[in-house]
Amino acid sequence: MAFYVRKSGTGIQIKLVEEPILLGSAGTIAANREWVSKEDAFWILYADVLTNISLRELLDFHMARRKAATLAVYRVPDPKRCGIIIRGEDGIVEEFIEKPTVPTGNLAFSGVMIGTQEFVDAIPDRRPADIGFDVLPRLAGKMAAYEIDAYLLDIGTLQNYQEAQSKWPGLYQEHLEC
Question: Taking the model in full, what pTM does it have?
Answer without folding.
Answer: 0.88
